[in-house]
Amino acid sequence: MSIEKYLLRLYPRIWRARYEEELLAVLESCPLSFPDTIDMLLGALDAHLHPYLGAMGLSLYERMKQMLSLLRRSLLTMFCSSIGFMLAGVGFQKMNEYDDFTKAAQTITLVGLSFHLILIGAVVLFLAVLGAGLPIASAIIESALRQKRYGSVFLLAVPLLAFAVFLLTTLLLETILGPGNHLSPGWRLFLERGVFLGVLLAAAIAGTGALCFAVARSQISEELFRFALLLSIPATISMVLILLAIFVWGLSLRSSVPQLFSSNAGIFASSTAGTWLGIVIAMTITIVIAVVSLVRGLSARSALRSTAA
Amino acid sequence: MGMPNLGRFSDPSILILASLAGGTKHGYAIMEDIETFAGMRPGPGTLYGAIARLEEYGLIEPLPSEERRRPYRLTAVGITFLREQLSSLETFAAMGLRRLASI
């Protein structure tokens, strides 16, 4: 396959259905230079951020259906990215449970201030996700009862079940790893880190996946999605705020308590700086995904509004 | 209808509209025409980003495809929009030239 076709594959499906053939004809007429390749990549990003482009040829019904589906997909992607963000945040919280960090937050103004900002941001994020999710969960239950498809109700229970499995595993690990165990260091490491992290990630993936599947297979009104999109704005802002605060927290810790920053007080006795950097990178990735999805969602919402008018 | 906001695509969009003011053209012909009269060639991604917006706002419309190439033409709204944009550019250019003359 030619590079032109690969580049066109990066464009959204609706856009390709409308413009792929003619753009390919243009590209066959002039050799693709490096600046043109960059231009095509930027064009693909632009088409993803403005998903209504190319939907002109669709019927009114099809256009509204596509935009509603896009709004739903954007919200689900934002939900998944916020869960990823929260997981990274849990890592940060676990690290801060160590006495040295608590002491640093109490004695160093900037460390303490940024830590409080993180807590405020976390509360706003949690409330925004909950506020957006609860009406949708209620609509899923209503839809399931009306259609007598009780599987969706079970899907809503999966996150609770996954959390229960995670808690049971943690209790089991505490018992096994408690005083008096005769495990070899290799087994200890495997159980302490491998099993714990594996179960945590599996529980998060199972819970998030089940909720996304439940939303995808239920009839949920456009109004609820619009409301959820509105709440995703403060959620995204709080994610950015938390990331900035964690960044400042790390820098101020590095300058105020360099011996703590360069020690191995991170998660599972790993490097503090490495843990901090890992958390910052993970949060940055999830924020980029959330912001792109938010722009796509807002774009789909505005297209839905103009189509309805 | 209010004037559409074409954002960062406003320059390529005006160039495309000006090109189509000379008659119907397909993508590659628009690209070549712009290169002739403006001395710059829009990249393929920029060109089709602008074409998609102009079509979305109803300023241009596609004609039936000729083989794989689809020609476009200005709509009545597109003609009005281009006229307004060029008139304001003309006013701006005249003011700039007047000020330059006094230097």
Q: What report would you give on this structure?
A:
The complex is a heterodimer of chains A (309) and B (103). Chain A contains eleven helices and no strands. With 309 residues, chain A is mostly helical. The two termini of chain A are 42 Å apart. The mean pLDDT of chain A is 90. Chain B has 103 residues and is mainly α. Chain B contains four helices and two strands. Chain B is elongated.
What's the layout of helices and strands?
The complex is a heterodimer of chains A (309) and B (103).
Chain A lengths: L2 H7 L3 H17 L4 H16 L10 H36 L3 H9 L1 H39 L3 H26 L8 H32 L5 H35 L1 H4 L10 H37 L1
Helix pairs in contact in A: 1-2, 4-8, 4-9, 4-11, 5-6, 6-7, 6-9, 7-8, 9-11
Chain B lengths: L9 H11 L6 H12 L5 H13 L3 E3 L9 E3 L1 H26 L2
Antiparallel strand pairs in B: 1-2
Helix pairs in contact in B: 1-2, 1-3
Features:
heterodimer; A: 309 residues; mainly alpha; 11 helices; B: 103 residues; two-stranded antiparallel ribbon; 4 helices; 2 strands; 60% helix
- What spatial form of chain A do the alpha-carbon principal axes imply? globular
Distance between the ends of chain B: 41 Å
Query: Greatest contact pair?
Result: A-B, 28 and 21 residues
Tell me the Rg of chain B in angstroms.
Answer: 15 Å
What's the mean pLDDT score of chain B? 89
Quick overview:
The complex is a heterodimer of chains A (309) and B (103). Chain A is built from eleven helices and no strands. Chain A is mainly α.
